[in-house]
Design a protein that fits this description.
Strand content: 25-35%
Shape: globular
Number of domains: 2
Order of helices and strands: HHEEEEEEEE
Number of helices: 2
Strand order of the largest sheet: 4-1-8-7
Largest sheet: 4 strands, mixed
Number of strands: 8
Length: 142
């Protein structure tokens, strides 16, 4: 590199470092990355929407089918129970059973195995975090 070019670059070094710092990370600058968080986990959509209290349990056969690890969502009543979408943050399992319990009884659902999880990037592919999600359907007792 010619000597006069080296001197010119040295004189502009602070500006170049600032430019590199601004363009590092997500997109062309950090302001292009939204602030959406990680949504990794399993979503269970129940149908129809329960009337009254209900419980949704996910049974994951970790060591054996007869001794599953259980993840539980319980709604004891009120307007917040008028939902059909139940999230289990952080839960990633490909084989499990969904048990929905209402005042009318219990209904077990085994989704098609293995359940397929999908990677998504809520902040764009150039930005973290990567989220791994799946949605399964379950019915309430009739």
């Amino acid at each position: 590199m010619p000597t006069h070019m080296t001197r010119r670059l040295s004189r502009h070094r602070p500006a170049l470092l600032l430019l590199l710092a601004l363009t590092a990370g997500c997109g062309s600058d950090d302001l292009t990355c939204p602030l959406a968080g990680d949504i990794t986990g399993l979503t269970v959509e129940i149908s129809p929407v329960p009337v009254g209290p209900f419980t949704v349990e996910i049974g994951v056969p970790v060591f054996s089918p007869s001794l599953p690890v259980s993840y539980t969502y319980r709604c004891d009543g009120g307007p917040q129970c008028r939902t059909r979408t139940i999230r289990f943050p952080g839960l990633i399992a490909t084989n499990f059973t969904v048990r929905v319990t209402t005042e009318r009884g219990v209904r077990n659902t085994t989704p098609p195995q293995p359940v397929k999880f999908t990677d998504t990037y809520p902040n764009g592919e150039a930005c973290e975090p990567r989220s791994t999600t799946a949605t399964v359907q379950a019915s309430i007792p009739e």
